Amino acid sequence: MARTTGIQLDFTEDDLRRAAGPESFSRGEDYAGAVHGLDIGETSIRAAVPGRETYRAELVVTRRTGLTGSCDCPYGADGHFCKHCVAVGLAALRQTSPVAPPSADAPVPVPPSAPTPRTSQDLVTPWVESLDRDALLALLKEESAADSGLRDRLLLRARVAQADRAEVRDLVKGLLAPGTFADDGHAERALYLQDVARAATILRALIAAGRAPEAVDGARWALWRLAEVYESADDADELFTPLHDLVAVHLRACEAARPDPDPTARWLVGHLLGPFGMMTPVDPAEYGNILGPTGLARALGLATEAWRNDPTDKAARLRERLLKARGDVDALVAAYADDLAPDGATHLRIALELDEAGRAGEALEWAERGLQTAGERRDVNQQLVEWTCVRHVRAGRLDDALAVRRTRFRAHGSLSSYRSLRSAARVCGRWEEERDAALELLRGNGHHGGFGRSSRLLVDVLLDEGEVDAAWEAAAGHADDRQLRTLADRMRDQRPADALAVYLRLLEPLKQSTKDEAYQEITRLLRSVRACHHRLGTPDEFSRHMAALRTELKRKRKLMQLLDTNDL
Question: Is the entire prediction scored with pTM above 0.85?
Fold first, then answer.
């Protein structure tokens, strides 16, 4: 169940795509439907995203810093905006309905007399509830006659209602016979997945018939059987949805049956430490009311014992999640503190837990400690940097935020860290002195920290500052092709001869390629060459150049067509 505060989200799908990049965004779309535990706060959004493991992701949205994301997956721990962050953002956008604020001269809308339903279910449920028994029976008869899938599911439920325990057990076991998923082709695998769905339908029918304890045992057996299938399959990604479904059935059955906490704790720990335990989205907190304090303590003891015997990441994660489910923040912090990552990633996790518990001061102290521990490491966790700076700004500690940005720029010189330094310094009214120091470092200290390529970075920085002439001087002998192209484009009108020399240099190696992308780039460069000749007043020279080029490359028919289309 998602928790929202009715906020209007200050980001869009385009913002997510820009933050993550096209590849991570595309992968995140595949996971958006599996996000659970969505918690939308005033400035942050948290949720769990299942995959082969279940990861916790958080988005932070502020007007000053924009959209940032953090995740405890390996890619997210390196400071990247990962696919799990994308999935959480997309899920949040689908959960809410942002409304653009009206313009100042727009008429004030008249509120509707009744809220407009936002989903088809909002229309269907009241209508079905309004039907009497005879109308409902007629509806079921009509729809089952038209839908063979619905008819089969109803037939299965009818059989379950009349079957005894042994018959139901044999029916489920018959559907989940091992081996077929791993050995057969696509069609047979699809049929097996349908059988798994039928098994889940049987278990739901047991719950509806007041036989929840049987459903608990059946779900556990089904998950155990699928574990065998999962381990023997070469590609088990197709099992994700049915596994998700069976876990949901098990939780629902436990909520209805209230099984003994001790065996439930043992099952939960065994499942989560099993072959696909981290692939299925089981949050121990969801079992909190079922296990109670005694069961949670038992589960924690089992997970801690497993972790001590075999300190794998999976066991450590489970131990941490159980500590969180118990609400024992101090114990959770202590568990994290047992193994602090040198890049500050673990300090960030501690800060997030403390912040979520309402202990903002302690959270910021841990974040600052993480940055101090990381020092001037190039690989410091970037999400820790962003989180700390946001908290400094919120607390009015602008100089502290600037100090963090300064340290990160000196440790890991990049255009991004330069821009962050500039933003922080401008807020403090100290950009002029910070800018002079940064440029001096770039110009004179190529051996310091992250400035092994300071000359190229200086070009990017000067371009970003709009100082094209200075960037051109700095580029001599240092700039790469991307920078040269940008420089040529920026100075084409004022220094057409210099720009022309760059375009001709970039054009030469492309003439050897037969790829469509190269042809497109050749065309773009030639259009720029033509513009330079126009500024120089030498159109005849361009015409001679084009005639020679067409003769040289006349066998490249696709290129010739492009040149014709662009009147070159």
Answer: no
